[in-house]
Amino acid sequence: IRRLSKGSGKAQALSSLILTTTGWRKFGDLAVGDQVFHPSGKPTRITRLHPVGQWDTWDVEVSDGTVLTVTGEHLFTVDEFVGSSKRKRRTLDVRAMAREGEFNLRLPDVDKEALRANGVSEGVLASFQNGRTIVGARQVPPVDARCITVEAEDGLYLVGETMVVTHNSPFAAA
User: What is the pLDDT of residues 103-138, one digit of tens each?
Assistant: First the structure.
């Protein structure tokens, strides 16, 4: 494991949508103090916005057809299947996934009941299912992007109209 500084290119496209406790916002319109959602279904406060920049950019495809535009150092926590029933939890950046050529990496589940209890609409809850996997990644032309830091201890939060679990931790696989 290697330590990456927070905001060091683990970014999301500014045009990406993210659900806050006050409604949908573009990533580029977020502010410190806004609350986004953690996979536990609870709000987590944005504690820092990192500078906007352009890095190597990738489209990451999820098994439900969702495509997220992120940078190569963007982190995803995934469960890798290492046998008939065993899973190994890993945090990988997009470049590592592409380099290893291994996809079908399962994203953590989202607590829909807790999201419902925190006011997330039935329409949003119907837009995704648990059990999704990352199925591919391809490099695309650079776009303006930024990283956020959330107060959740594990650094996880939900992004996109289908509430994909993503990550802002300073740790990545070597």
Answer: 778 999 999 999 999 999 999 999 999 999 999 999
Torsion angle in degrees (nearest 10) through CA of 97, 55, 143, 157: 60
Q: How far apart are CA 44 and CA 167, in angstroms?
A: 12
Q: Structure pTM? A: 0.88
Tens of pLDDT, residues 129-148: 999 999 999 999 999 999 99
Contact (CB, 8 A) for 74 and 164: no
Q: In terms of Cα–Cα distance, which of 64, 126, 66, 73 is closest to 99?
A: 73
Rg (CA), the chain: 15
* CA pair distance 122, 70, nearest whole angstrom: 27
- Residue 100: predicted pLDDT: 84
- Are the beta carbons of 10 and 4 closer than 8 angstroms? yes
Residue 75, CB-side half-sphere exposure with 13 Å CA sphere: 29
- Give the whole-angstrom CA distance, residue 49 versus residue 52: 9
- Dihedral sign from CA coordinates of 107, 113, 119, 121: positive
